[in-house]
Amino acid sequence: MLRKSLDWLYLGSAWLAALCMVGVLSMVLLSIVSRLMSFYVPGTDAYAGYAMAGAGFLALAHTLKHGEHIRVTLIISRFAGKTRKGLELWALSVSALMAGVLCFYAWRLAWQSRLFHDISTSADATPLWIPQIMMGVGTTVLLIALLDEWVLELMGRRTRTAGELGHE
Question: Which of 35, 126, 134, 147 would suit a FRET pair with 91, their CA atoms being 20 to 30 Å apart?
C-alpha cells in the first residue's frame, strides 16, 4: 500500500511537471500570436519562466526513481557487497541531506514571499509565493524519493539502472 502510494506521488509530480511544460508552450505561443496580431498580453514571459521552473522541480523525484539522474558510478561501480552498499547509503544520505536543506529553504522562501507581499517585477505583478510553491512541492517530493531510495538500499531491495548494471 505504501509502495503504491509513493509511486503515485512520484507519477503525480511528473504529470504536474508535464502540465507545466504545456504551460510553457502555451505562454510562448500566446506571446508569438499576440505579437503577430499586434496586441499585448502582459506576463507571458514571466509565466513561461514560472512554468519552466515548476517543470524542473516537479520532475526531480520521478527522474530519480527512473534512474535518469546523472550519477557518477566510476568509484561505486568498482566495489561490491557491503562496501558498495555503504558507499550507496553514504551517497544517498548526503543527497537526502542536501535535498532536505533545499526543501527547507524553498518553503521558507515561499513563506517569506507571502509574508512580505513580494510580487513579480514584470508587468504581471504576480505574488511570488504562488509559483514558488511548485519549487517547495518539487523539493519535498524529491526528499521523499531520496529517503525511499535510502530505505530500499538498506533493505537490499533497491533496483539498479541499466547504466549502473553495465559497470558491474
Answer: 134
